[in-house]
């Protein structure tokens, strides 16, 4: 961006109008999420849409409030991909096993004959 | 393009800051990375126990959803005041920056107070880390007491971060005349991260556990 390699100070890009509009979008997305909470959707759809909206909100916060959009690309590449890969690795174990775990759920009271002990 | 590439290779040659951020700011980013993984692990663990158990969905519109929505509004607004503080600090308007930082700390404290009230509602209903209220256990037969453990664990961990952030911000506000602009920016990074975490905690803990029964 600038030619002064050691200049880490002072310049903070972004106008108040930009920050206000980001805040507005964050509120709007939160309102949408709360609205969605009261829709009778299957939990899988809910989870996908809610997490999608949350990832958009997180991206807005990181890009504009945390200023990462205005930082050097090499800083972005140091932080974001490693994080995404580490979280995906956690999910890699979680997702397949959660299907198995679903079948281990409590299914209601056992049949009377099996309850003899 | 070529000049940017040259500048980057020059910066990595030594004697300069290759990321164009100070070591403290880089340190905060690395801390944020590690803390993100802590919260990711907690939330993924929560999702796992939720998938493998009968899970109560007890949150009524009042008080839980109203309170948590207002808390979200408060935390998002505190991020806005924090970004205003950093912006003022970059223009060397230190007293303005101090006021914005203090406003952020007050909003953070408001979040904690609202959250404590919300906790108290649930505790008075009979929820504890290891036990569900009798009414819930009856309404959702076979539901797991892990609800309390994950709820208090995750929201408590987040609240601890908010409380730490409030103290951090008060220290920064008190020393704003002595600190560099980048130090104010670093405190902002921490605060926005706390806000960011709540963007995942709120839907996963609250919005997926709304009580739809009449």
Structure write-up:
Chain A is built from three helices and no strands. By secondary structure, chain A is mostly helical. Chain A is flat, with a radius of gyration of 23 Å. The N terminus of chain A is likely disordered. By secondary structure, chain B is mainly alpha-helical. In chain B, 76% of the residues lie in helices and 0% in strands. In chain B, helix 3 runs antiparallel to helix 4. Chain B starts with a helix and ends in an 8-residue tail after the last helix. Chains A and B meet through helix 1, helix 2 and helix 3 of A and helix 1, helix 2, helix 3 and helix 7 of B.
Give me the oligomer status. heterodimer
Order of helices and strands of chain A: HHH
Unreliably modeled segments of chain A: 1-9
Distance N to C terminus of chain B? 62 Å
Give the count of helical stretches of chain A.
3
Strand content of chain A: under 5%
Name the descriptors.
heterodimer, A: 117 residues, 3 helices, 0% strand, disordered N terminus, B: 214 residues, mainly alpha, 76% helix, elongated
Quick recap:
The complex is a heterodimer of chains A (117) and B (214). Chain A is mainly alpha-helical and 117 residues long. Chain A has helices at residues 16-37, 43-65, 73-102.
List strands and helices in order, with pairings:
The complex is a heterodimer of chains A (117) and B (214).
Chain A: H1 16-37, H2 43-65, H3 73-102
Helix pairs in contact in A: 1-2
Chain B: H1 2-11, H2 23-51, H3 61-90, H4 94-125, H5 134-139, H6 146-174, H7 181-206
